[in-house]
Amino acid sequence: MQDDINNQEENEFDNQYSESQETITKVTGMYKEWFLDYASYVILERAVPAIADGFKPVQRRIMQSMKDLDDGRYNKVANLVGHCMQYHPHGDASISDAMVQIGQKELLIDMQGNWGNILTGDRAAAARYIEARLSKFALEVVFNPKTTDWQASYDGRRKEPIHLPVKFPMLLAQGGEGIAVGLSTKILPHNFNELIDTSIKILKGRSFSIYPDFLTGGVVDVTNYNDGARGGKVRVRAKISQLDKKTLVINEIPFGTTTTSLIDSILKANDKGKIKIKRIEDNTARNVEILIHLSSGISPDKTIDALYAFTNCGMSLSPLCCVIQDHKPVFVGVSDILKISTNNTLNLLKSELEIQLGELQEKWHFASLERIFIENRIYRDIEEEKTWEGVISAIDKGLKPHITHLKRDVTEEDIVRLTEIKIKRISKFDIDKAKQLIESLEDEIAVVRNHLDNLIEFAIDYFKRLKEKYGKDKPRLTEIRTFDDIEATKVVMRNEKLYVNRAEGFVGTSLKKDEFVADCADIDDVIVFRKDGTMMVSKVAQKTFVGKDIIHIAIFKKGDKRTTYNMMYRDGRSGPSYMKRFNVTSVTRDRAYNLTAGNKGSTVWYLSANPNGEAETVAVELKPLAGLKKVKWDVDFSDLMIKGRSSKGNLITKYSVKKIEFKTAGTSTLKPRKIWFDDSVQRLNVEGRGELLGEFTAEDQLLVATQSGKIKTITPALTTHFDNDMVVLEKWVPNKPISAIYYEGEKERYYVKRFVVDQPNKEELFISDHPKTKLQIVVTDYRPKVEIIFSKRSLDAMQLSLEDFIAVKGIKALGNQLTDNKVKLVNRLEPLPHTPVEEVEVLEDTVEDGENDQTTLF
């Protein structure tokens, strides 16, 4: 019975479905027409700026409304929004938001009140509480009703500009972003002064390049900017510096972020274990200041890289220059936009000059007519005339003998204007003043004609005036650098623990009862070697099966050419034994690689992983066999070359091996590593970028000194960050003396000292900590020579050998007094020739006040 009911319900449903299928109405035509209209409207009238003036329609209407109400005083934004609604067909919220965005770019609107904060993301106050007026810059470059084309507003009651006559690359100065139907635009802002300089280059026909600049500051890598066109990319980073050993400070943030979103991203990365921080302080007010407090034992350098890798401190932006040109969306590059804008400015300046010339010529024409009319008393000829036509005719007849020098014919409108001259003006007419007026107009006409004849030079002078007038407080805020790629696996905080169950063949972070392997992160890979000579790399997970008989497991470093594996194995079940050395630089995840000769039954006798290419010595012992004389001997891995992991290796023995045991540790067989310092990114590298610092073994260190008077030696890790005031960076030679000249703030005198660093890995201050103490120069030549230039012009510059002036003493010594006179400059000269000696003698010196060091140069 129930089955019958179910079948009946299914049949009814099928019938209803069939009926609904039969009554479907196609709406293709309607969608095609309406959707195209909608898409066109959004693209042309809302989301995408016009290339002609750089404004979206709402922005253009806001500017026109502010011009309508401009009287030099501030207007409430609510009033401006209300007035703009006469032009704009949308609500007050969209107008208010657009006005705030224009104001926050600090170029066109003079703001008063709380307009929000682009650094913190705080919103502006309500429109009724804030005020605005046009900036002087906007009044000068945006408006000119004489060169503006007008159209009816959306309701036909008013006239609005089709485009504003903007004589500046406004679109690139402000930037723009919008999402339309089927396309979007993202134009990055550029520096005011750089845009002017580049426009001048365009006018002069020179090559140029232009890159983004952001009000939030930060650092930008424009290597792949691609002129701002499709397919380009820029990388932006916050400016992070080390305040002390446990505190980082962020002073500038990347474009597109706020301090709030930046802090949120840092907290999320901390929660996920990518970084490890103690707490964050946001002290941002007028300027950004975010303090990141680190836990003890956490490397500040590594944390900085991790912030760039895992938080919004490092971001990638994809510019996309889409603009409206000739009522169509087009994709162009920044260079094309700037060229079009510059040519548009040139044409607008030409139009303004032509209009000005026409007005001056009209003034000259009427001034000449007025002079003829009054000087020749033509006004008396109309006294007897009874009709208006007679008056016009009489004046025309009286003017004819005197108008041969005029530039155009006299029209009836000219004559009507003559009749409107008041008797009082005629009675007080001064012929000399009239001549002066005409001559001044002729001079002005000559100037305007000269500008038109030399239009390029006039436009260049125009841009220069803009820069001088408005560009003084608009320096570049975003530093351009080339970023080095940060490998996430090298900087991630390893707060997970990796375990292995060798018997069952599982590895993972959840096997807490099994053998601990190493600290790890969830983005790490793990490399596993098994007894049968197979190797596999797998991503760290909670629990992964990698195979039984695990003999070695570790965190895998991709591209690692220094970690060397030393291996001995038997080929097949009873074959000969071989030995090999190899690196593992790249593999496919979860693929088993056979490291033996490939015969079934192979087994690994010995395997070691050596992080710096060490080659140990092992003892090989064979199974006793009749006639076998030598059953035990030592093998040194340093006799083998490092080859590929698929190589068969060198033969050890064809007899059965009883055991192989480690005997003695060896040294690295790898060459010392050359390290360079790339000043553009302030980082060490091994790719040959920048200045070569030298070849480094595991024991070598770098010497670092700063302008603040601090000196230390450090291990040359490629992740090291350097302070901006670093003045010395070189390979440390332990016995090489360091020489310094400094001004001692407490004694108010200049001192010279020479010392050696005798406590490696410890940062020390080699000048006093008095607030007025200032380092003049620090050099690391064996026999340094300097030139001292005094502030007093009466004192001649002196050359001084620091080796002769003072002996090498302790780092805490005050040094010898150099001079009582004020030093203007200390120049480093070519050092004296040096013959290396084994050791530099350091004199015992505990003098703190320098009373025994009174050798004075001047």
Oligomer: single chain
CATH fold type of one domain = Neuraminidase
Distance between the termini: 121 Å
By CATH, the superfamily of one domain comes out as: DNA gyrase/topoisomerase IV, subunit A, C-terminal
Helix fraction bin? 25-40%
The average pLDDT value, as a whole number, equals: 87
Question: Radius of gyration over alpha carbons?
Answer: 41 Å
- How much of the sequence lies in strands comes to 25-35%
CATH architecture of one domain: 6 Propeller
Q: Count of helices?
A: 18
Q: Give the number of DSSP strands.
A: 47
Low-confidence stretches: 1-6, 12-20, 844-858
Give the structural class: alpha+beta
Shape: elongated
Kindly provide the name of the CATH class of one domain.
Answer: Mainly Beta
The largest sheet, given as strand count, sense and whether it forms a barrel, is: 5 strands, mixed
Account of the protein in words:
Helices cover 28% and strands 26% of the residues. The protein has 858 residues and is of the alpha+beta class. Among the domains are: 1-36; 48-165, Alpha-Beta Complex (Topoisomerase II, domain 5), CATH 3.90.199; 495-664, DNA gyrase/topoisomerase IV, subunit A, C-terminal (Neuraminidase, 6 Propeller); 673-829, Neuraminidase. Helix 4 crosses helix 5 (92-104), helix 8 (192-204) crosses helix 11 (334-375) and helix 8 runs antiparallel to helix 16. The longest helix has 42 residues, at 334-375. The protein starts with a helix and ends in a 29-residue tail after the last strand.
